[in-house]
User: Fold this.
Amino acid sequence: MSSSAAQIAHAAVDEYSTFASLRLGRTVQSIVARLIRFWDSRNVNKNGEFMGITLLLLDEMDSVIHAFIPANRASHYRPSLKAGCIVRLERFEVARVAHMYKVTEHQFLIRFLPSTCLGEVHTDAPVIKSERFMMRRYDQLQVLANTNLELPDVVGEIRSVQGSDLSNDSATTRVVVRFLIEPNVTVYLTLWDEAASTFRGLLKSGDKSKDVLLVTTVNPKLFGGNLYLNSTQGTSVGAASSPAFTCVDTLEGIKRKEPVSIGELNAFISNSDEQTQEPDFLCKALVVGVNQENGWFCVELAVDDGKDSATFVVFDKEMTKLTGKEAAVLALDEDPNGEGDELPRCLEELAGKEFVFQIRVTPFNFTPNHRTFTVSTITECNTLETCGKEHDDNILPNREVEVTLAASSSGQSVLGNRTGVEYAEANPPEVKGAQKKRKLSSE
Assistant:
């Protein structure tokens, strides 16, 4: 602790400002507050460049303000930072809070200057609560979703957990929690990095009765009608006691073929770990058209299961089993001169027919650029009936809530500042010209 900080630590605390009385600028002001917590802030757009330390401070009037220590002063003040202690802060700058990523409701923030003094108050400290949270209801979270205006706090009950290597509390890969935040309202809580590691530590204790979580500083995102609460750099995770929950470790992946809807297929993409999952699914769907935009040697089928739609890609090997002829042979049969724009009749006739598609989900499906699902096998519809209707225990249960994800094979990264998760995009635009003719493509 610096000498100036030491002097503050033993100084009287009878003259200071409350957060409500702070004035803009570099005026001579001092505050006494509890340091609730602090975290390193990084710029994800510059490879995680360290920007400084963010602090949350609580005063005796139950008001919260956030302070910021720039990177060039972080090493000087870090030894003096201790979460939970009461501190006195002097000679700082008061500025207006930016309109984005607010972590408190206060209109101002405190900026540390080279002359700022920080010290712990050991005697005659005011009575200050230990915590205060910026809680938001479900309807408020929906309004905040996709705006990046606030990073609120939430409390809820764990319904199920899915992630890789859940017993390893040093792992920082994504963990997805189905989270009950209000009666009959379940959302997805996605934890990354340190928050994911902390949560694994709670699981490692082996006490699954701790299923009520208090999660701070989350970034709400709406996708396909579902609400996702994504952890941020400032997220902390705490647990209380309650009934047990389902915990699914996906380190070994999913072993059997699962019958799913298109919506459930997209939900799996949204909620699974791309580094550990490569399962097969069986999906029953009606072919509504053939997309000729990329030619038909690699056949793109627009499919629909009655609720959702997607694009399935079938390569020549599987199409040959269906049509009885290879693509090159079909091309010659339809147009020996290779100059026509006719779609082979056997492909046109696929429209209106229903099949069971075996889909292999690969790491490609978890990238921002994936546009389709690849079909490994096509079979008659009665195959699905023999496979059973129940999900394997290794799939994050989705049947308890209505899956309203707009089904598509497209993917979009909404990580923001490494706080989010990759989701499948909304329904792809309708397959234009599915029945139109175009010149044969060899691509």
Summary: The longest helix spans residues 193-204.
